[in-house]
Write a structure and sequence with these properties.
Layout: H1 3-19, H2 40-50, H3 56-64, H4 73-80, H5 84-127, H6 156-170, E1 176-184, E2 193-201, E3 207-209, E4 214-216, E5 218-219, E6 228-234, H7 245-253, E7 257-261, H8 279-296, E8 304-314, H9 316-324, H10 344-350, E9 365-371, E10 390-395, H11 404-413, E11 419-423, H12 437-442, H13 444-447, H14 455-474
Parallel strand pairs: 1-5, 6-7, 6-8, 8-9, 9-10, 10-11
Antiparallel strand pairs: 1-2, 2-7, 3-4
């Protein structure tokens, strides 16, 4: 972390310590109680806005200071923290970590200065012949070789402290998410699947224009690293592979490969089967085929660890993920809801024209983030085969057929210990990436949030919590 960012993080952490000087300024269950009280994340967001300080460096330090790896900041505040004193101890720990980062940065700068001096000495000696006496002989140009430093005369503690800044020197100066379009070919199990993948990239950040949205990233960047974890992403009804690009970019920057597709017949460019029960059978199969492609024939196949695969799904994508990890829908449970509906799906349910194809489960998926899932067809019995770690998110207001009650039923029905987050004052589409102006104008129903809800601010914490979960479950570089 650059020294300027460390200094800003320290300033923000000190402001938080001042804010939480007594119990009266701490709250749980919401970001802001309206009377000057904030939760941990609420205080961070409020103070960063008030003092115009970046919040990301402080979030990273606070996340590293959590009592266990991957524990979300909101969950710690609401469920684990017993007092303001304990909250302050976490902030103080984050502050100590910032001091450690600063010391490493200074050591790296010193090591860089020393290395450059050694290189200049070698260059000067070579230019001056033998010892610099006389004209010397002509120096033949050589292919540059790696500089190898001998540190055998250092004791173990000195060696480790020296290697830390040396490793920092070899890290790329700038980093962006690599981006490339992908297409899993049609086969006996379904049509071609079109989408994109994001991957680690050491090139300087650039921009990719996709029309209504411009993505940060580097197109067709060589993939950095091997044995990388993979996260596959599934959109909601009428969505597209780009709907959760912010999460994909963040995962790629953190050393993951992320891949998302358009579900045929249920995507923005093709809604031909969106109102047919068959799409709820085909969606999980689409993702299985995407995983097959990513670890088999994709440009990233040799870079992916097939034993570290995660899943992210929103809305119908949330339904898709629950099925993939073991859920079994009970179509008849929606009969009462369909009594007054003229939709094709409800007509099929009233006529008991349930899909006959087998459901697709995929044991390769080791963990899943499920955001505001369409859960009309799930009962407690439907969920009993789910055994993998789950991070479940719910909007407070619901929308597009998703109700807070149904998502809460998933929470209570999951048979395994899991995370559950309800986002205050949020509607269903708050989980989509923040909309650029052109998209907000074209699709206001997707981009308009409840009064007082800041989607951009929410996504900074949401994305960080998703990353922390996958790091804890799948690991990273």
């Amino acid at each position: 972390m650059p020294e300027a960012q460390i200094a800003q993080a320290l300033q923000l952490l000190d402001l938080m310590l001042e804010h939480f000087a007594d119990d009266g300024h701490w709250t749980r269950g919401r970001y802001d109680d309206g009377n000057g009280g904030y939760c941990l994340v609420g205080a961070l967001l409020h103070l960063s806005r008030k003092h115009r300080l970046p919040r990301a460096p402080a979030i990273v330090l606070l996340q590293d200071a959590m009592p266990r790896p991957g524990l979300p900041l909101v969950h710690f505040n609401d469920s684990c923290c017993g007092s303001v004193a304990e909250l302050r101890s976490i902030i103080l720990k984050a502050r100590r970590l910032a001091d450690d980062h600063a010391e490493q940065s200074r050591a790296a700068a010193a090591a860089k200065t020393w290395l450059l001096a050694q290189i200049r000495k070698k260059t000067d000696r070579a230019a001056g012949g033998y010892g610099g006496h006389g004209a010397g002989r002509a120096v033949r140009a050589r292919t540059p070789r790696r500089l190898v430093l001998k540190i055998r005369h250092l004791n173990p503690l000195q060696a480790s402290s020296f290697l830390i800044p040396l490793a920092l020197l070899t890290a790329p100066l700038a980093q962006a998410a690599g981006f490339r379009f992908i297409e899993a070919p049609a086969d006996a199990d379904g049509p071609a699947l079109k989408g994109a993948m994001w991957s680690p990239c050491s090139a300087a950040p650039a921009q990719i224009d996709l029309g209504n949205v411009t993505l940060p990233g580097v197109k067709d960047c060589p993939i950095g690293g091997d044995k990388l974890p993979l996260v596959v992403i599934s959109h909601g009804r009428g969505g597209s592979f780009v709907g959760h690009h912010d999460i994909a970019e963040m995962l790629a920057d953190a050393g993951f490969v992320a891949a998302a597709i358009n579900h045929p017949g249920d995507t923005a460019s093709d809604m031909s089967r969106s109102d047919d029960l068959s799409v709820f059978i085909e969606r999980p199969n689409d993702i299985k085929r995407l995983i097959d492609f990513m670890i088999g024939a994709s440009p990233a196949a040799s870079n992916i660890d097939p034993d570290r695969i995660g899943y992210f799904g929103f809305s119908r994508g949330g339904y898709t993920g629950l099925v993939l990890v073991g859920a079994k829908p009970d179509w008849a449970t929606a009969a009462a809801l369909c009594e007054q509906s003229s939709s094709r799906i409800c007509g099929q349910i009233r006529a008991k024209e349930y899909p006959e194809q087998p459901l697709t489960h995929d044991p390769r998926i080791k963990s899943a983030v499920i955001a505001d899932p369409l859960a009309l067809w799930f009962t407690a019995d439907s969920l009993q085969e789910i055994k993998v770690p789950i991070q479940l998110w719910a909007s407070e207001l619901g929308g597009d057929g998703v109700t807070p009650h149904n998502v809460a039923a998933v929470d209570s029905g999951l048979p395994i210990k899991h995370e559950y987050h309800v986002v205050p004052n949020s509607a269903h589409f708050a989980f989509l990436a923040p909309c650029p102006p052109a998209l907000a104008k074209a699709r206001p129903e997707l981009c308009t949030d409840a009064p007082g809800f800041d989607r951009g601010t929410f996504h900074q914490q949401f994305d960080a919590d998703v990353l922390a979960f996958f790091r804890a479950q799948l690991g990273d570089r």
